[in-house]
Structures are given as structure tokens and as C-alpha cells.
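ok so i was messing around last nite and threw this chain in just to see what happens. nothing serious, just curious
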Amino acid sequence: MSVFNIVSIICFSLCLLMFFYFKWYINKRTTESGLEEYRKELKKMESDINAVTDRNLQLIEDNISKLKMVLEETDKRISVYNTEREKSRANETLYTSLGRGIRAALKTIEDPASLQQERQAEPPQQTAQTPIVQPAAVQPEPPDVKPLTKQQIRSAIDSLIMEGLSPEEIASRLDISIAEVNLAINLFRRK
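result:
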């Protein structure tokens, strides 16, 4: 016998031995006791998954209820804002109408010809004349100023930034909010 034949016989016997060992091992693991172990493990995993799912569902439901409360609060705030805005509009129209009435009264006081006509139309009631009160210094109404465009405001803010003015001074000069000035400053710095 040659060495080759001896080595091949040893390899064949080793393979046969391994085959029978693995067959025995698989049979041992797949018997009822082994399968019962796997079933217990699967049931435990299933219960863990169910517990985690229930916890996640509860968290989602809690978040949904919180979100509903936030939405309700937001709706309330929006309705309050709308009512305040309507009140503001009503006040603006009231102030505008009051301003027109005051301007009309000042114009009649300033216009002596109209006063003469009114005096002639009225019957004399008293012998003593009532003095006419005229305002000390009546400033003429400013002419209607067209609002600046966004581009004009932006360029004005940029030039005032270059001069080194603070956001409050820029806002007061241009009659805009400080938030708008801060936004423009941030955009200016990004250039």
C-alpha cells in the first residue's frame, strides 16, 4: 500500500465520522425537548415584541393628544389675534374719522372767508361777541408720501448700516420695525 491510499482511507473515515456526528447532533437538537426550547424562546421574543409595540402605541397616542392640545391652543390664539386685529382696524377707522373731523374744524378756523359767511348766515343771538380761538401754530398737513419700495428700504438700510447706526436708530429713521432691520443686517453681513 502506498502512502496515498493510506491518507485517502484516513480522510474517508474522518468524513464518515463527521457525518455521523453531525447527524446525531442535529437529531438531538431537533427532538421534542430541543423544539420545546425553541418554542419557549420564540414565545418570549413574541411577548417582548408585543410589549414594545404596546409601549410605542401608547407613546404615539400620548403624542397625538399633546399635539391636539397644542392645536387647540393655537386655534384659540389665532381667534384672539383675529379679534384683536378687527378691533385694531375699527380703532384705525375711528381715529381716521376723528382726524378728518379735526382737520375740517381747523380748516374752517383758518379760513376767515368761510367764518364771515357763517356769521352772516347766523342770526345774532348775543350782543357780546365770542372770541374765536385760533391755534397758535397750525402745521400744514404733510403731502401724501408714497411708501418706499422694498428695494429702496433695503438700500437705505444698507447705507445706514455702513454709517454705523444702531438697529433702533435705523428703524426709527425709516419707520419700520426693529425685526425688519435685524433681518436686513443679517442679510447684509452674509454678502
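not much to say yet. The two ends are 92 Å apart (CA to CA).
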